[in-house]
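sorry for the late reply, my laptop died twice this morning and i had to redo everyting from scratch. anyway the thing you sent over, i finally got around to it. pasting the sequence first so we're on the same page, its 201 residues, then the predicted structure underneath. double check i copied it right bc i was rushing
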Amino acid sequence: MSAAAANVVLASTSAIRRALLSGAGVAYEAVSPGVDETTIKDSLLAEGASPRDVADALAEAKAIKVSLKRPGLVIGADQTLDFEGRLFDKADSVAEARERLKQLRGKTHRLHCGMVVARDGQPIWREVVTTTLRMRPFSDEYLDAYLQRNAPGVLSSVGCYQLEGEGVQLFDRIEGDYFAILGLSLVPLLDLLRRHGAVPL
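ok and here's the structure:
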């Protein structure tokens, strides 16, 4: 591991975000940001913030908090689900996941992937990548079988699906960045890391 590569810190313990960075060949350290996401989110929504702005603000809060304690480039990321202008949180139970998927069934929603890179407590780069997804009108029978096969893993996703697995079968149209749907838009992020010498040119 080179000294430059070691200077990348992921302000997240998300398994999928770690897998994305590792798969791209980025050497990094993962650190839990310890941010009270619920309080920040509730405050922003009370002020009328959009789901997109919430993703951006949460990513910034994570990056800044960790970068105050760790040197190098600190990546903060967050993802929000925007359904008809409403922000959906992760489901707390399989029953709630079932109702969530029934709401989304046959309709279009958007995912906002917010990313902020901070250094020494200051944001130096930010981007929000939005993808649009439309669920097919699947049957109740398929839905129940899907949840039986994939619970409780679906509870880790705000949309109650994991696109890298069977969740892709829930859709009939997907527009945008696949990596952003998983939680980290790699192409613009890797460009930023290259420009700062954190990964090889």
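Confidence is low (pLDDT under 50) at residues 1-6.
thats about all i looked at so far, will dig more tmrw
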